[in-house]
Amino acid sequence: MGDRLYLDHAATTPMLPAARDAMAGAWARWANPSSPHAEGRAARAALEDARARIKSALGWSGDLIFTSGATEAIAIALKRTRSDAVLVSAVEHDAVHRAAPKAFFLPVQGDGTVAGHALTGRLGALGASNPLVVIQSANNETGVIQPLAELGAIVRVNKGALFVDASQSAGKMALPEADMIAVSAHKLGGPPGIGALLIGNLGLIDPDGGQEKGYRGGTENLPAALGFAAALESSNAWFKRAEDLRAHLDGAIEASGGQIVARRTPRLATIAAYRMPGMASSAQLIQFDMAGIAVSAGSACSSGTLKPSHVLAAMGWDAGEAAEVIRVSFGPDTSRADVYRFVEQWQRLAREAKARAA
Ligand code: PLP
């Protein structure tokens, strides 16, 4: 595909070499981990080894239920919850909103974070005896990091359980303290099609399924589990460099008349959202693609179509301005030269947009 520059790692990121190698070797382990014969027992041992390695890499000591990705982990946690009320932040991924259509909404502030007093207020108004509160670790459109230490403490005081969608931050930042956490392998250099629900107490959800201690149905994907483990065990030292790259990119975009979404909020170093005044994000995507650069607009990805961002709307953005925002996301191989190349194109498009408006 020529000299392409991929800056859409938040959508999915290429598999790390160690994950590919682990999977290539794993195809020889074709047996069903639930079979009692020797081949099955060997597959079971390999699966349990992968489970233990993933837990250790993530620093999680509770149960780990393998799923097909974060979406399924979210669905299991929310559709089978035993809580008497579910409270969901307004900026959650669509997968959360779809799995809990009757949930109560928790608003965010203009900076994208949930305020402690808002959470306290909503929990008080709900009056539930064991509420489930759903708040992501880092937003997939803006990178905004939620203050989960503070919010988790409020949930505990109110005798609730906290479920965190850590799809974007897992493998990059330490996991938050939570009762349940969703993670996804393809966001951290593992294969697509596998993820996990981390759960401290299985009593929080109803069992269903013939595998995974009765909490999930379907033969486990052993090669993918081994790829997932290998990806998590790969060095993530590159993530520290991303902070620098993002700071440079932020500065260049702002100096060229762009607007940084959630400028002053702590954000995951690999995700940034920028508004280019005067040019629709759909047009920007086409222009960048023609210039060999892959970026995305908001949470555009579900069906390949662009829809207004519920995240920016929840942060109080005007719909017209929100429609001019694109997302840039870094991966392990993103370099300073890549950032320069993106900035050059961004400046060219911004100049054209300005000239058209004049
Ligand atoms: N949650 C967040 C925050 C995401 O960014 C994504 C992926 O786009 C998902 C959930 C869904 O993840 P998966 O593709 O593993 O189902």
Explain this structure.
The protein is built from 12 helices and 12 strands. With 358 residues, the protein is of the alpha/beta class. The chain has 2 domains: 5-13 and 236-357, Aspartate Aminotransferase, domain 1, CATH 3.90.1150.10; 17-233, Type I PLP-dependent aspartate aminotransferase-like (Major domain) (Aspartate Aminotransferase, domain 2). The protein has a 7-stranded mixed beta sheet with strand order 2-8-7-6-5-3-4, sandwiched between helices. The protein has a 3-stranded antiparallel beta sheet with strand order 9-10-12. A two-stranded parallel ribbon has the order 1-11. Strand 5, helix 6 and strand 6 (161-165) form a beta-alpha-beta unit. The mean pLDDT is 96. It binds pyridoxal-5'-phosphate (PLP).
Give the topology.
Layout: E1 5-6, H1 17-26, H2 38-58, E2 63-67, H3 70-79, E3 86-89, H4 94-99, E4 104-106, H5 116-126, E5 132-134, H6 148-157, E6 161-165, E7 180-184, E8 195-199, H7 222-233, H8 238-255, E9 259-260, E10 271-275, H9 281-290, E11 293-294, H10 310-314, H11 319-322, E12 325-329, H12 336-357
Parallel strand pairs: 1-11, 3-4, 3-5, 5-6, 6-7
Antiparallel strand pairs: 2-8, 7-8, 9-10, 10-12
Helix pairs in contact: 1-7, 2-7, 5-6, 8-12
This protein binds pyridoxal-5'-phosphate.
